[in-house]
Amino acid sequence: MRKLLSITLTVFALSAQVGSVVANPEASGVKLSGACKSAISVASAENRKAKKVGFEWRDTGKFIKQAKKSGGKKCVKLANKAKGQAILAQKQARDQANAGPVGF
Q: Packing angle between helix 60-69 and helix 72-95, nearest 10 degrees?
């Protein structure tokens, strides 16, 4: 039991450290270009709008985090993918605003 607890705590401690490095991409040595920073900013803004209406999609935040970790064209591609998902999530919220059971 102690061995399992020790392993679990060790894994948790290491994952917490990795999370703090990923939160600040500049600290991990990744230099983000102006286009990448701009794309991430737009994607984050659109995702906040989707959260506000209660329709944030599962992977949108993951794509933004991956974009922050990567650089160059991949960063812009991931950020644009996240932006597209956030916009579609907002559209879904509008489309389903008055959804209800179908009467027979």
A: 160
